[in-house]
Specification:
726 residues; 8-stranded parallel β-barrel; 38 strands; binds alpha-D-galactopyranose
């Protein structure tokens, strides 16, 4: 049983294959006892540390109760003496901001219900999943708190979220409502996070936890290029293959906060959820508020083990639809080939050429609608620009279809250009604050997706095009962050709700679209990876990883992204050389080696390259068609980190261990290179493997023990190996 209740000890224990998570009810308080390697189901009361360290903190109930500041709480709230950061803050009608939730009851049920209006992990038929629901109440504050825990036994995953219900007959305000808190009894932990910027997102940073608070967050109205909504905590000696690691990932795409606080008593509190800065949510009498979901995973086999678990969970139990398990089509996106400068003839030329190369899906990026010759107009006017495409999408489609390919197009639905018919007709449809200037980013404003009429307009505009049946793929972009966050329709007291209401609106729109058009492959994008998060993966199984398509730069970006997100979620394309963002010159082989992820394609003009490169495209497209399944479902191993060395290496091993695709790239020239060998992982020790390109044969033990020998000295050169069991 995944959820075990020890009545005598008043202890609730959640078990997965390799981990346990234990809570205890004492004096009505819900305490956190343990999260780590799997335990047996006995009474673990001794794990509760109550040392009476007051240090100027208060005891509850006069001087007889516990010192909240000194104990580990399952879902800490503000106001009764716990002076660490809270998971929630409630502001009552009398102005007090105390919350004191006490245990009332709990229930356990098989399976997992969807979250109301929010993306969340789900159970497939046959999955061993149980859901625990703990009800707590603040009797004085007349508020109910329900904590949900779904235990995915085989995946070593526990999902959490909280629901607040106002039981009083007056309005109350939630000042903070995070998804999960974990009180560790120790602070000797490293924190691993992603940080970055546009074109350099999801870089890895690992640092020892310090006293005080480390906060990664976004208040940008998107999960953002700058931080990513997850936290990893681990022992200082935890490596890729060994040691304990704890991961908390938020299934959400908007402003968030993930923090860890080293406490005065050498403990640590991790929190993840909606960013409390600027947050406020009015709860009317009887109303409820549901937080986004947090996904928790413990690994005792290192960071690699943690990533494998998240990859599997997100691939199988978060991504949805017919593309979830399918090899993704080989696509060619024309953005870097043409930018805004295309017409029907140019597309035809590229299409005719691409078909011969093995491309399966041709994508017309930005510029096909309104009068969009540059990025300063027309967002919102989702009508084909007949100057460029006189025969409409129909003519383009017919030619592409005749060539045996599918057609994809770009949308940036959440935006409006001030120079657009939509904005001229509905200036109040943009997020704005009356009497204040409207700040533009890339000459555009953000539509107010809290409004039903805006959602309906977008649904109709997009559905009108998708209904024709010509479009097989949509790239859904989002190219600026929020400022002047105001809505014309919402009551003044509810304006703090807009950042979250915006995402409820976006998710509702996406749900309608993916339900109505199940055959369309949606790819998320936000200037590349500005919204690469588990929330978007629920609607769109892949994301354009970065606007930086340079193979060398992508090494760090993809390595960092792989901490949590599966290869199948990462779109990676072979782009032109010299690269358009960096000017790096790399050979085709290196660009291919790096781009071979679960979602592969090209970002170049096939008519403008040599016949030799076209042949390389043919061969690489065929290779992906053959190996795409393995790359999407296999176990990804980070072998050499580009953050530490002058090279990077990784491998993907199919679940049956029959195929291993491995890549190595040298990022700096070596005058006198070392004897470098690359030990692989996850192979069958007693099997023999033949490497496809060299014909060499190795045992699994050799490949994992000694490894493969590397002879490279020139920077940006690479090796791609395909080992097949014989
Ligand atoms: C964003 C995307 C690019 C491209 C452009 C089009 O920057 O990340 O891939 O689609 O928009 O304007």
């Amino acid at each position: 049983m995944s959820v075990y209740f020890n009545k005598e000890a008043a202890q609730i224990q959640l078990n997965t294959t390799g981990s346990s998570y234990v809570m205890q009810i004492r004096d009505g308080l819900l305490l956190h006892l343990y999260w780590g390697p799997r335990l047996d189901d006995r009474d673990h009361s001794y794990m509760h540390w109550e040392q009476g360290r007051a240090a100027f903190s208060c005891r509850m109930e006069g001087c007889t109760g516990p010192i909240l500041d000194d104990i580990r709480l399952e879902y800490p709230t503000w106001g009764r003496g716990d002076n660490r950061s809270p998971a929630a803050e409630v502001i009552h009608p009398n102005g007090s901001n105390i919350a004191d939730f006490r245990y009332v009851s709990h229930t356990v049920a098989d399976g997992k219900a969807p979250l109301c209006g929010l993306p969340a992990m789900y159970a497939n038929a046959g999955d061993d999943v149980q859901t625990l629901e703990i009800t707590l109440e603040d009797k004085v504050g007349e508020m109910r708190l329900t904590l949900f825990y779904s235990v995915f036994y085989e995946l070593d995953i526990i999902t959490r979220h909280a629901v607040f219900t106002n039981l009083s007959d007056e309005e109350a305000i939630l000042g903070a409502a995070l998804s999960a808190a974990v009180d560790f009894d120790r602070a000797d932990l490293d924190i691993i996070t992603n940080y970055g910027t546009h074109c350099a997102e999801r870089q890895i940073e690992r640092a020892p936890l310090r006293r005080g608070k480390t906060v990664l967050s976004s208040r940008r109205g998107a999960s953002s290029h700058v931080h990513n909504p997850f936290l990893i905590l681990c022992d200082s000696e935890t490596s890729e293959t060994a040691g304990s690691a704890y991961g908390l990932v938020l299934v959400y795409s908007g402003s968030f906060s993930a923090s860890v606080e080293g406490t005065q008593f050498g403990a640590a509190r991790a929190l993840i959820g909606l960013n409390p800065e600027g947050f406020g949510w009015m709860l009317e009498p009887g109303a409820s508020f549901t937080t986004p979901e947090a996904v928790l995973c413990f690994s005792d086999d290192g960071l690699g083990g943690l990533s494998h678990r998240f990859h599997k969970a997100f691939r199988r139990n978060l991504c949805r639809g017919k593309f979830r398990d399918a090899r993704r089509p080989v696509l060619l996106n024309m953005w870097e080939a043409c930018y805004f400068g295309f017409d029907e003839a140019r597309i035809k030329k590229i299409a005719d050429c691409s078909a011969d190369l093995g491309v399966e899906l041709l994508v017309i990026d930005d510029g096909w609608f309104g009068r969009r010759d540059t990025d300063n107009c027309s967002l919102g006017d989702w009508v084909v620009d007949r100057r460029k495409l006189p025969g409409g999408l129909e003519a383009v489609y017919e030619n592409i279809h005749k060539n045996g390919m599918q057609l994809g197009i770009w949308f940036e639905p959440e935006m409006v250009s001030p120079d657009s018919d939509l904005y001229r007709a509905h200036p109040d449809w943009a997020l704005h604050i009356p009497d204040r200037p409207r700040s533009e980013g890339r000459h555009q404003l953000i539509l107010d997706l809290t409004r039903q009429d805006v959602q309906d307009y977008l649904y109709d505009s997009i559905a009108d095009i998708l209904k024709t049946g010509m479009i097989s793929y949509v790239k859904w972009d989002f190219n600026r962050n929020m400022a002047e966050v105001g809505s014309a329709l919402l009551d003044a007291r509810r304006q703090c709700e807009i950042p979250h209401r915006y995402y409820l609106g976006l998710y509702a729109l996406l749900e309608r679209l993916v339900t109505a058009f199940p055959d369309v492959l949606f790819e998320s994008c936000s200037g590349g990876g500005g919204r690469f998060d588990a929330g978007m993966l629920y609607y769109m199984p892949q994301t354009w990883t970065s606007d930086n398509s340079d193979a060398i730069e992508r090494l760090k970006i993809q390595y960092g992204t792989s901490l949590v997100y599966p290869l199948s979620a990462m779109s990676a394309h072979v782009s032109a050389s010299p690269n358009h963002q960096t000017g790096h010159v790399t050979d085709f082989a290196t660009r291919l080696t790096v781009a071979l992820t679960g979602s592969f394609g090209y970002e170049l003009d096939p008519t403008a390259i040599s016949e030799e490169e076209r042949q390389a495209i043919r061969e690489s497209a065929a290779l992906f068609k053959e190996l795409g399944g393995v790359l999407a479902e296999g176990d990804y191993h980070r072998l050499i980190s580009p953050y530490d060395k002058d090279c990077a290496a990784w491998s993907v091993v199919s679940s049956d261990k029959r195929v291993c695709v491995a890549g190595f790239v040298l990022t700096h020239v070596r005058m006198y290179g070392p004897n470098q060998r690359l030990p692989l992982r996850g192979l069958e020790p007693d099997a023999n493997y033949k490497e496809r390109f060299s014909g060499r044969i190795f045992s699994g033990r050799e490949l994992m023990g000694f490894g493969i020998d590397i002879h490279l000295s020139l920077e940006y050169k690479s090796i791609l190996w395909i080992f097949e069991k014989i």
